[in-house]
């Protein structure tokens, strides 16, 4: 949905956020003949229209704001509701012949009409529609259904008796839609399962266009890949590409983590997180998809989000295992492990790796470590102070407001803004860093949005305004991904081997080890509340 001040030409209507500008009246736009006027809904968003055009469509209600000649209306045509902004260029509201500029965007519509609007959106001034639709359509449709609707339309293109500019505009729209789709979401086509839809679609592209020829070739290559994939046994089909070797607990040496510099550990963790985040498919975060992850038959859904969460939980588990596994350590020795992980968290902060930072903080706040009174008493006071400061970043106060503010400040900046924040510590700032966010914030936002806003209007139309709001969140993810795409890392084999050797601890096992270290019954001195890890994906 357009921001309210844009929809009303820069003024808020009464009863919303401001009462300074009163609504002074409304009336239908009248034609010269005295009948309600309804401008053409198929014109360009920048066309100059005459309000004297006639149309037998139902009356529109138009609101005027004083001091400005912009109006906003809603129009329904053939299965689509449009939000239309009309700006009067000359004359006054009482003039019936004044030229106006007009822009419009889809508010809601049927599934078929929303798909077909892909081919008309640019001509109608709704330039963002293609991007928003391709980012969110899986919440109300599927790839096969969208392809079927578009293919049916391509089989009946504008005929020879249509004006040439209409045919050219249609052909350009077809190429634009599929070029954007193939470039941004190639996995949609590769996940079709069988090639019949692509083989039907490819020959329908315009014959007199080099870009169309390229699209045909790309679709046919994907169709060939699908044909070859269909011949493979199920065990060899892996759409995610994410594999994780099983840990070898016999090789696990908990205290070996002390031998790695904190900066090296943070660099290796940032390498892992960045590679996962760049491969994250943003629409996998949509609330309507993520909320179905635990349903039977949906085990493979949102695989890129699951991979990110598995890494989050794996790191939190590594912190727990390294601190709890050696139950025979003295409190002073175990305190050095806590200090090491606090230093690693600081280095992650310097690299804007908020995902690993929160995983470490969550593990240190978890009950099995949180309750170790003697160990915390032996931990360096300055390290504890820095740990508490890092923990505040992920405070749930005001819906993670501090974490959101940091993402806004540092999301696309080259370096973390850490001056005078983390003990004035000097970090190596020779290389620019991307930003890896804590994904749980976006998952929460999209799940709450999906729950709070209806998918359909009362008349059954799909609520596309909701998709625009979802896209605003997805766009933030994609912007952060772009900051990570040029990051370069080197692997450290020794740390990788240690990290892969960490055994997986259950909650019960973790607490049992903690109880062996310090018997239950004594209150914990720590003031921070234990944090729950965002989700368990097995």
UniProtKB/TrEMBL annotation:
<dbReference type="GO" id="GO:0005886">
    <property type="term" value="C:plasma membrane"/>
</dbReference>
<dbReference type="InterPro" id="IPR019804">
    <property type="entry name" value="Ras_G-nucl-exch_fac_CS"/>
</dbReference>
<feature type="compositionally biased region" description="Polar residues">
    <location>
        <begin position="51"/>
        <end position="60"/>
    </location>
</feature>
<dbReference type="InterPro" id="IPR000651">
    <property type="entry name" value="Ras-like_Gua-exchang_fac_N"/>
</dbReference>
<feature type="compositionally biased region" description="Polar residues">
    <location>
        <begin position="32"/>
        <end position="43"/>
    </location>
</feature>
<keyword id="KW-0344">Guanine-nucleotide releasing factor</keyword>
<dbReference type="InterPro" id="IPR036964">
    <property type="entry name" value="RASGEF_cat_dom_sf"/>
</dbReference>
<protein>
    <recommendedName>
        <fullName>Ral guanine nucleotide dissociation stimulator-like 2</fullName>
    </recommendedName>
</protein>
<dbReference type="InterPro" id="IPR023578">
    <property type="entry name" value="Ras_GEF_dom_sf"/>
</dbReference>
<dbReference type="InterPro" id="IPR008937">
    <property type="entry name" value="Ras-like_GEF"/>
</dbReference>
<feature type="domain" description="N-terminal Ras-GEF">
    <location>
        <begin position="102"/>
        <end position="227"/>
    </location>
</feature>
<feature type="domain" description="Ras-GEF">
    <location>
        <begin position="261"/>
        <end position="520"/>
    </location>
</feature>
<dbReference type="Pfam" id="PF00617">
    <property type="entry name" value="RasGEF"/>
</dbReference>
<dbReference type="InterPro" id="IPR001895">
    <property type="entry name" value="RASGEF_cat_dom"/>
</dbReference>
<dbReference type="GO" id="GO:0007265">
    <property type="term" value="P:Ras protein signal transduction"/>
</dbReference>
<dbReference type="Pfam" id="PF00618">
    <property type="entry name" value="RasGEF_N"/>
</dbReference>
<feature type="region of interest" description="Disordered">
    <location>
        <begin position="1"/>
        <end position="60"/>
    </location>
</feature>
<dbReference type="GO" id="GO:0005085">
    <property type="term" value="F:guanyl-nucleotide exchange factor activity"/>
</dbReference>
